[in-house]
Amino acid sequence: MAVEVESYAGKDVTISIVPDRCIHSRNCVLGRPDVWVPNAEGPWVHPDAAPAETVAAIAESCPSGAIQYERHDGGPQEAAPLVNVVRIRENGPYAFHAELNVNGDTSSTRATLCRCGASRNKPYCDGSHHEAGFKATGEPATLEFEALSLRNGALTITPLSNGPLRASGALEICAGTGRTVTRVGNAFLCRCGGSSKKPFCDGTHQAIGFTDRQ
């Protein structure tokens, strides 16, 4: 299925929006309400209303990757982070920041992926955890772990059929407050919402008949 992308070209920077990836974190409309102007007639994104470096910084604060940018002023483009991280949001999705390959999509270093099982846009979060009343801590216990020889590089996220997310590559799993839970080279992360060992899969998806159909 083709992904809808809205593009807004400015003199020094072009802003691209992927509506289906937006989780309404509102970093954009709160950070520069003159650039992102929702519920307005005509174009709602105005790239020339702020310096390109400001637009870039706010775009990179978008956890879902719904906002992308391309600078035309000679300034730096977005780079992958020095440490691959997934943050576990309280009662919400996984927020990844890494050199990502999500089911073949390498368009962003940022993505919020469903862990409640209810999204209609799997593997991405679409906010369905709110209406589903999903409850899951963002502060799982700290586990014993060893240092990774490499903390960045390619991170491949593969949604297994009717099962968990398989994360392949260096990854630091963090609580919502930033505390390191563990560091792994591979992990199977629950996305059915039912595991008793969240954020990890414990096979509950089989017992509850989880399906990844939209």
What features would you describe in this structure?
The protein has helices at 27-31, 52-60, 128-132, 204-208; strands at residues 6-9, 13-17, 67-71, 85-88, 94-97, 99-102, 110-113, 154-159, 165-174, 180-189. By secondary structure, it is an alpha+beta fold. The chain has 2 domains: 6-71, Alpha-Beta Plaits; 85-208, Ribosomal Protein L9, domain 1, CATH 3.40.5. Strands 4, 5, 6, 7, 8, 9 and 10 form a 7-stranded mixed β-sheet that branches. Strands 1-2-3 form a 3-stranded antiparallel β-sheet, with helices on one face. Strand 1 (6-9) and strand 2 (13-17) form a beta hairpin. The longest helix is centred in the first third of the chain and has 9 residues, at 52-60. The radius of gyration is 18 Å and the shape is globular. It starts with 5 loop residues before the first strand and ends in a 6-residue tail after the last helix. The model has no long low-confidence stretch (mean pLDDT 96).
User: Which structural class best describes the helix and strand composition?
Assistant: alpha+beta
> What is the CATH T-level topology of the largest domain?
Ribosomal Protein L9, domain 1
Stretches with pLDDT under 50, minimum 5 residues? none
By oligomeric state, this entry counts as: single chain
The string of secondary-structure elements, in order, is: EEHHEEEEEHEEEH
Radius of gyration: 18 Å
Largest sheet: 7 strands, mixed
The CATH architecture assignment of the largest domain turns out to be 3-Layer(aba) Sandwich
CATH superfamily of the largest domain: CDGSH iron-sulfur domain, mitoNEET-type
Strand proportion, as a percent range, falls in 25-35%
Supply the CATH class of the largest domain.
Alpha Beta
How widely separated are the two ends? 12 Å
In DSSP terms, counting alpha (H) and pi (I) runs of 4 or more, how many helices? 4
Q: Can you count the beta strands?
A: 10
Overall pLDDT, averaged?
A: 96
Helix content: 10-25%
User: How many distinct domains?
Assistant: 2
The backbone outline, from C-alpha atoms, is: globular
